[in-house]
Write a structure and sequence with these properties.
This protein has 2 helices and 13 strands; from the N terminus they run αβββββββββαββββ. The chain folds into 2 domains: 18-141, Porin (Beta Barrel), CATH 2.40.160.20; 148-267, Nuclear Transport Factor 2, Chain: A (Roll). The longest helix is centred in the last third of the chain and has 26 residues, at 175-200. It has an 8-stranded antiparallel β-barrel. The chain has a 5-stranded mixed sheet with strand order 9-10-11-12-13, covered by helices on one side. By secondary structure, the protein is mainly beta.
């Protein structure tokens, strides 16, 4: 059981992320609960949202949208700037701006975010400034290649390469460098996902250890697949029984600048 869980946890013009999420203003703002949908390509994202607004004397629906710009990323954290506009049930407009922090695990399509900043409400009596805080969770879908290129499955347990890549010209990458970058990204994503899963299941299993190896690589245009395997062992705390084994799978990647980004994992 642990093996399956741990293994399963283990941009350019042609790649985009589609995000569907829930959010709340956490009492700083009238939006008690909302739904958000958006799309992001490279660093720039746009979104629209609808919320239930609980303002005194003006309870009802609030609609709006915004734009974001990713400033920097470190491991699984991305810092971004954000600005938006909302309509309130009273008919007033609320303009907001600030910064956000987004956390995602490479091989899972779920991410959480927090946004903080200021909002300006334009009412009949003037402009009312105030703080803004939003918390949310997104389900992320990746449109890996909008041109529809299919990536053949890589061969497991070998160093074979199927290459029809299309790295940006300014990156000046050789085929060998592009393949090596894809392998390295897949290994880092698997280790990060396994580390997160190990922490989540440490109350159930002890002495968790694992090793990850990469096999064949298949690259077509701006998408890639890397085959690999995970050798896992642990001890079940409830009865002291050892569990583990070796499990194979494929990590899916999309090109991100001159490198790669993991978008998901297929076991088996």
């Amino acid at each position: 059981m642990l093996a399956g869980v741990l293994a399963a946890s283990a941009s350019n013009a042609h790649a985009a992320d589609i995000r569907l999420g829930l959010n709340t203003s956490a009492a700083l703002g009238c939006q008690v609960l909302g739904v958000r949908a958006g799309v992001q390509s490279d660093r720039i994202g746009v979104y629209g949202q609808a919320s239930y607004c609980n303002a005194q004397g003006a309870t009802g629906a609030s609609f709006g949208g915004g734009v974001s710009y990713d400033v920097t990323s470190f491991n699984n954290l991305t810092a971004y700037l954000q600005a938006g506009l909302d309509t309130l049930p009273s008919g007033s407009l609320a303009v907001n701006a600030g910064a956000g922090l987004r956390y995602s695990t490479p091989l899972l399509p779920v991410e959480g975010y927090i946004e903080g900043g200021v909002q300006l409400i334009r009412s009949a009596l003037g402009t009312v400034p105030g703080p803004r805080l939003a918390l949310g969770v997104n389900y992320r879908l990746t449109a890996e290649n909008l041109q529809g290129t299919l990536v053949p499955d890589p061969k497991p347990n070998t160093d074979s390469v199927q290459y029809a890549g299309n790295a940006p010209e300014e990156c000046k990458l050789t085929q060998e460098q592009d393949v090596a970058a894809a392998r390295a990204t897949a290994l880092n994503a698997a280790r990060s996902g396994l580390s997160d899963a190990s922490g989540a299941y440490s109350a159930v299993y002890s002495n968790i250890s694992y090793s990850v190896s990469a096999g064949g690589v298949s690259i077509s245009g701006n998408t890639a697949k890397v085959a690999g395997s995970v050798k896992l062992s642990a001890v079940q705390r409830s009865n002291g029984q050892p569990v583990g084994g070796t499990f194979g799978g494929t990590i899916n990647l999309v090109r991100s600048g001159c490198g790669w980004r993991a978008t998901g994992y297929t076991q088996g």
